[in-house]
Amino acid sequence: MDVITIDTPQLGDRSYLVHDGTSALVIDPQRDTDRLEAAVRNAGVKITHVAETHIHNDYLTGGLMLAKAHGAEYLVNAADPVDYERTPVADGEVFQVGDLSVKAVATPGHTHTHLSYIVSDGQGQAVFSGGSLLYGSVGRTDLVSDDDTETLTRNQYASARRLVAEAVQDAPLYPTHGFGSFCSSGPAAQVDSSTIGEQARDNHALTDPDEDHFVSELIANLSAYPAYYAHMSPLNIEGPGPADLTVPESVDAGELGRRLNDGEWVIDLRNRVAFASNHLDGSVSFEYGDGSSFTGYLGWVLPWNDKLTLLGTHEDVENAIRDLSRIGIDSPDTATVGGPAEWAHGVPTAKYPRVGWDEVPRGSTGDEVILDVRRTDEFETSHIRGAVNIPVHDLPSRMGDVPPQRLWVHCASGYRSGIAASLLQRAGKDVVHIDAMFNEAESVGLPMAES
After folding, report:
1. What strand order describes the sheet that includes 368-372?
2. Rounded to the nearest 5 degrees, what angle is found at the Cα of 178, between the Cα atoms of 326 and 116?
């Protein structure tokens, strides 16, 4: 058995190609299937089965398209109300993929109908756990509904134990989520690989002997998740179509100026340093260079399916189009030649200060406000005394709550505060972008609130 990992760090997920040298199974493929197709060609194998561990909430699947393209069986839980033909799968069913035996194991928790797959080659096993058992954690249990969260959390506790009981201890574990995905119920262990036995020893879902304690702790620590998640499951039930990954012709300068004047979303992909020093007035900053953050935050912050125009280098725009297609944001317009001066002639440019912690005022004069745009749970854990907290993903709908004073905007690293500063300036606010690590604030004398 050979397992090839297709990593999507932009969303914190992994897909898998599992084969015996001839026949192959694909597990949890993302919508841009060309990466998998290349892996299949390189391995010289034939896809006979494509399997979903669950109806995904954080990305659009490429499973249906991939199965159709290869005439493969598409394994989806029989209880999922999908709008397309599939091979319905139930707990305990076994499928042959060449010399490999694939057993479906019901592991509800992340969703009601979640399945894991134990693949055997006669000598050993590999476990593909989707959003069930992760490295050091488990999949979050609050994505179905608030009313179902406690039941699903109890299910997750039982599912983790069942999966460990079903598999051999030295079986490698291959989760889909947990590499930065908001589908994780908490910070996953910073490891690239693990086994069932290692998780049995270290994973809190398996080491906590008190189910009630596990349930209360997991639910208490669930944090906010991207707003676009609400659209993924319905689209996956319908069956997503192929993504158009072509880069369109650049929008002409006059049309881009009109879009800015009309208040459309014009997204500058350049790094936040370049944006702060010079950008088209009315554009917003979503730095593409930090690939692990771009897709999730753009899909979280901006209204779903509003028209977008991407500004940046051809390479960044091309990559951004691919990333956004994974969450159903299709066919954005672009401008890829030059910079602000060439993108829209006659449109005024803007800038704002970008500073470190040393330049942040100590004490309040009433004319300055520190605005913390981290998530509420981060703010409650630790924050600067007197700071105001409005998470970046809430800013578009809460501009009326933003203080009228000059705003010194920070997050944990500078990435989210760069987004926030651009949104605030677009709304007419006086902003300073604090581009620094939050954990360095106290060391330069900024007072922390008492917990």
Report:
1. 354-355, 431-434, 406-410, 368-372, 388-389
2. 85
Instruction: Using DSSP, state whether 235 is helix, strand or coil.
Output: helix
Q: Residue 3 pLDDT more than 90? A: yes
Q: Which of 238, 236, 228 has the alpha carbon at shortest distance from 305?
A: 228
Q: What is the DSSP letter of 246?
A: P
pTM over 0.70, yes/no: yes
The three-state secondary structure class of 193 is coil
Q: CA 108 to CA 54: how far, in whole Å?
A: 9
State the helix-helix crossing angle for 211-220 and 149-166, rounded to 10 degrees. Answer: 120
Joined tokens for residue 212: 């009630």
**% of the chain exceeding 70 in pLDDT:** 98
C-alpha–C-alpha distance, residues 245 and 248, integer Å: 9
Which residues are bridge partners to 75 per DSSP?
51, 87
CA distance 71 to 66: 8
What distance in Å separates the CA atoms of residue 447 and residue 385, rounded to the nearest whole number? 6
Average of per-residue pLDDT across 155-159: 98
Extended beta strands in 58-159, E state: 73-77, 87-89, 94-97, 100-106, 115-120, 125-130
Q: Which of 92-96, 179-183, 196-200, 220-224 has the lowest mean pLDDT?
A: 179-183
CA distance 256 to 259: 5
What residues contact 265, with CB distance under 8 A and at least 6 apart? Answer: 284, 302, 306, 307, 308, 309
The whole-angstrom distance between residue 203's C-alpha and the CA centroid of its chain comes to 22
Q: What is the mean pLDDT of the chain?
A: 95
pLDDT in tens, 96-137: 999 999 999 999 999 999 999 999 999 999 999 999 999 999
Phi first, then psi, for residue 4 (nearest 5°) are -110, 125
Decide if pLDDT at 290 tops 80.
no
User: The tokens of 388 are what?
Assistant: 């105001």
